[in-house]
Specification:
Blueprint (H helix, E strand, L loop, with lengths): L1 H26 L8 E6 L8 E2 L2 E4 L4 E6 L5 E7 L6 H4 L1 E5 L5 E5 L4 E6 L9 E6 L1
Parallel strand pairs: 1-4, 3-9
Antiparallel strand pairs: 1-2, 4-7, 5-6, 5-8, 8-9
Amino acid sequence: MKFATNFFKQLALIIPALLLVLAPVFCSVSPAMAAEVSVKMGADNGMLAFQPSKLEINAGDTVAWVNNKLAPHNVVFEKAPAGADAATFSHKQLAFSPGESFSQTFETPGEYTYYCEPHRGAGMVGSIVVN
């Protein structure tokens, strides 16, 4: 009987110690991976549009604009949330070649709006909401 009592006392000490050692291994949370989203400049159907024209992304994600159809295109930011300067996100240089691209990573949450300078009058505008 004394053996059983000592055994259970030792077991009562060993189990919590093992749980403390192993819990971080099984309960760890891996960090979220940042995503990269592509936006076509010039829609597949031949329209002067960003495709997609509206995005919702997370802070730390990157948007890549890829020249698709009806060049030349660029991306000029008109609005950015407080703490972000719209001009620093703009890519005013025109993209002429199919597949030509540029990208921007967004860290500050809020709404961003942009347009294509040569085709703004045709309605080539876009927006990004960063969560």
